[in-house]
């Protein structure tokens, strides 16, 4: 573990290598899981506000799921999450050329909304959780991401490097820069 201020990082975030490989995983992170994508309280409000602007990007079954369940739901762990289509993929997914992607992000890319996508999706496969006064940042090593691990290893790209933009979005540039320094020091001391 590495602590920077009130944030505790699993060493896997610094030591494991990862680069998404959509051609091989087909965006299964948008489909696999126990519930929808975790949402912050602010994101719950924001999704409600922007829904009229993004609903044209959703598939018919995604639109139906949101209309029936709402722009967000509370899951079995009492967490705010995105609704699902038939208990499977996120209601906000697109399915194009055999690959799942995010309708919210497509709207963002087209300048329709300033909200890129839920932070939990942007950070995947890293998960952040608040515990009282501190935040835990952990890397999830999932079988659906085996191609991403191979691609990261081939390119020599660490998890924290691949996730630079969302980590800065979540924690700020100062903490991210300190994380980079700590990662370099760790590699220097261990020779990895």
- Describe the strand arrangement of the main beta sheet, using strand numbers: 1-2-8-7
- What fraction, in percent, of the residue positions are helical? 40-55%
Mean pLDDT: 90
Succession of helices and strands:
EEHHHHEEEEHHEEHHHH
Give the termini separation.
16 Å
**Radius of gyration from the CA trace?**
17 Å
Strand content is 15-25%
Largest sheet: 4 strands, mixed
The tally of beta strands, per DSSP, is 8
Broad structural category: alpha+beta
Report the total helices: 10
**Principal-axes shape call:** globular
- Low-confidence sequence ranges: none
Task: Write structural notes for this entry.
With 192 residues, this protein is of the alpha+beta class. It is 44% helix and 16% strand. It has helices at residues 12-15, 22-25, 41-54, 60-69, 103-109, 119-123, 146-155, 159-162, 164-171, 173-190; strands at residues 2-4, 7-9, 73-74, 80-81, 93-96, 99-102, 126-131, 134-139. The strands form three sheets. A four-stranded mixed β-sheet has the order 1-2-8-7. A two-stranded antiparallel ribbon has the order 3-4. Strands 5-6 form a two-stranded antiparallel ribbon. It has ten helices and eight strands. The relative contact order is 0.21.
